[in-house]
């Protein structure tokens, strides 16, 4: 038997991989258009591309990086909830809300990239993460 909270975790992992594919599909052609030759690059970092590629080509990459940041806390707290037997019902619903908000955040950042809109969605998703964390603390302490 499994905990319902595992489902939104898997969906967010899958979404992250979708954004990785989108980032590669956008960035590689932009690099080619900018005359960047992958065969000759040595020791660069992702932020170096911000200086040579159009911002729109970087937005999906930036979002992929964001999906490697705060969502790691989401995966950890969901795992605690699942292992403690508290990953069903309201906690699963809150987890789905977090995933939905992170997908909306991705879509905003990958398209219009309006910071105000992204920020509102980020704050809302952060509040769901706080709620999950409080519930996890109640479950294990």
UniProtKB/TrEMBL annotation:
Species name for this entry?
Sphingomonas aurantiaca
Q: Which SUPFAM superfamilies match?
A: MAPEG domain-like
Protein name in the entry: MAPEG family protein
Q: Which residues cross the membrane?
A: 119-140
State the superkingdom. Answer: Bacteria
Q: Name one GO cellular component term.
A: membrane
Q: Which UniProt keywords apply?
A: Membrane, Transmembrane, Transmembrane helix
Q: Indicate where this protein is primarily found.
A: membrane
What InterPro entries has UniProt attached to this entry? Answer: MAPEG-like_dom_sf, Membr-assoc_MAPEG
Q: Where in the cell is it found?
A: Membrane
